[in-house]
Write a structure and sequence with these properties.
Elements: E1 5-10, H1 14-25, E2 31-33, E3 49-51, H2 52-61, H3 65-72, E4 78-83, E5 86-92, E6 104-106, H4 109-122, E7 126-128, E8 133-139, E9 142-147, E10 152-160, H5 167-171, E11 176-177, E12 185-191, E13 201-208, E14 214-221, E15 224-230, H6 238-241, H7 243-253, E16 262-268, E17 273-275, E18 285-287, E19 293-294, H8 303-321, H9 326-359, H10 363-375, H11 380-388
Parallel strand pairs: 1-2, 1-10, 2-7, 4-13, 10-18
Antiparallel strand pairs: 3-6, 4-5, 8-9, 9-10, 11-17, 12-15, 12-16, 13-14, 14-15, 17-19
Helix pairs in contact: 1-4, 1-8, 2-3, 2-8, 3-4, 8-9, 10-11
Length: 405
């Protein structure tokens, strides 16, 4: 293999940009291949919730980055949960200290990507636009990528961050394992009224009375609100995701004026899948983010696990490039792949628990939810269960071998 790049990143989404920054922090030259053009339009807010761990990792790889994203986002201080019209839980957190990164921040993914991209440019990262990778082949010596336009790229290592339909993953023969959830969810982003700012509160409704007892989640983020309605099995999504139908139900769960401020609508049947392996047979390819795993978003486990995927990939590739022999290099890649797959399996299991609670297919879950709604008026423990269960166990309840999920 003649004069290959030390490492290429495939995909310029938030995980790809993070991977590139993490590699630069390791002192490596980086080129990012992106299928779209530089002026691509990215619809919707997508990921909006970033945990402190994610902010800390960004800050560690690029001084000021974590703080910039934290300050650009909205930190909501109160969360409230309702059973129908009755509030069953409320908690208000103290405002974050000015010298400590907040526990989380809420910012549209497009805005976070813009900040990440600017930091990539400032760090000297190269971008190759309109490079739609069509095939990837790995050998014990390195990787060859072919683009749809016929160009060939060579690298000693690559990181596939090219999303759920990852060409990188498919080309090296790695499959995703796990189910697709039958229930559908409609997610709507709404622009905030600058003359009447929303309260910084996260609201969750079991059996919202205004939408025939469907569950509704309302999450504020900087300059907007996300409304998520859980459809019943058998519902036709078109009755909830078309412009007129969105206005109909949205104006019932938010002040009516927001029905005319919709910026993005999407319908999901979530996949709960993890790649069989996070690296190829020759230990030259690593997968990160949605190329490696797809979860339901409850608990914000997608991008927030993609960032530590990126860090692990960058660290292991730097170790491999400096290894004294091929076996040592392969071992560095393999260990990182196993650690991040372990974390992905934990996150999938956690989001499975959240989905099980929200769908309430089992009699035991239904009875526990209703009993908790009755008991919540007498104390906070039952209300806390109703508030936290739709988001799954906290990631801090268990640590991976590298301490991050």
């Amino acid at each position: 293999m003649s004069n290959p790049h030390p490492v290429l990143v495939v995909g310029a989404g938030p995980v790809g940009l993070t991977t590139a920054l993490a590699l630069r922090a390791e002192g490596l030259p980086v080129t990012v291949l992106e299928a779209d053009g530089e002026n691509r339009q990215r619809p919707g807010s997508r990921a909006i919730f970033y945990h402190r761990q994610t902010l800390q990792l960004w800050e560690q790889m690029r001084s000021g980055l974590g703080w910039e994203i934290a300050r650009a986002g909205l930190v909501w201080s109160t969360k409230r949960t309702f059973w129908g019209e009755t509030q069953v839980y409320e908690r208000t957190y103290p405002l974050p200290r000015p010298d400590v990164l907040p526990s989380s921040t809420n910012l549209g993914q497009v805005d976070a990507e813009a900040i990440l991209f600017r930091h990539c440019r400032e760090a000297g990262i190269e971008f190759a636009w309109n490079q739609q990778v069509s095939a990837v082949s790995s050998t014990p010596e390195g990787v060859v990528l072919q683009t749809a336009a016929g160009r060939e790229w060579q690298a000693r290592y690559i990181v596939g961050t090219d999303g759920g339909r990852s060409v990188v993953r498919k080309s090296v023969g790695i499959e995703l394992e796990g189910p697709r959830i039958e229930d559908a969810f409609v997610i709507v982003d709404v622009a905030e009224d600058p003359d009447d700012p929303i309260r910084p509160e996260r609201l969750y409704y079991y059996e919202h009375p205004a939408v025939e007892k469907r569950n509704v989640l309302l999450v504020p983020f900087r300059n907007g609100i996300r409304a998520d309605i859980q459809l019943r099995r058998g519902d036709n999504p078109d009755h909830f995701n078309q412009p007129d139908s969105v206005k109909h139900w949205l104006g019932r769960v938010l002040p009516p004026k927001y029905a005319d401020r919709v910026t993005w609508v999407s319908t999901y049947q979530f996949m709960q899948v993890v790649a069989r392996s996070f690296t190829d047979q020759h230990r030259r390819v690593l997968l990160a983010g949605e190329a490696a795993h797809l979860f339901a978003p409850f608990g914000a486990r997608g991008l927030n696990s993609g960032v530590p995927d990126a860090v692990a990939a960058a660290t292991s590739i730097a170790q491999a490039l400096n290894a004294s022999n091929p076996a040592q290099a392969a071992d560095a890649i393999q260990q990182a792949a196993e650690r991040r797959r372990e974390a992905a399996l934990y996150n999938r299991n956690a989001s499975n628990l959240a989905l099980e609670h929200m769908r309430a297919d089992g009699l035991g879950t239904r009875l526990k939810r209703k009993a908790s709604a009755l008991l919540a008026r007498y104390g906070t423990r039952a209300g806390s269960y109703l508030d936290s269960a739709p988001f799954g166990p906290r990631a801090s309840a268990r640590k991976s071998s590298d301490g991050i999920y």
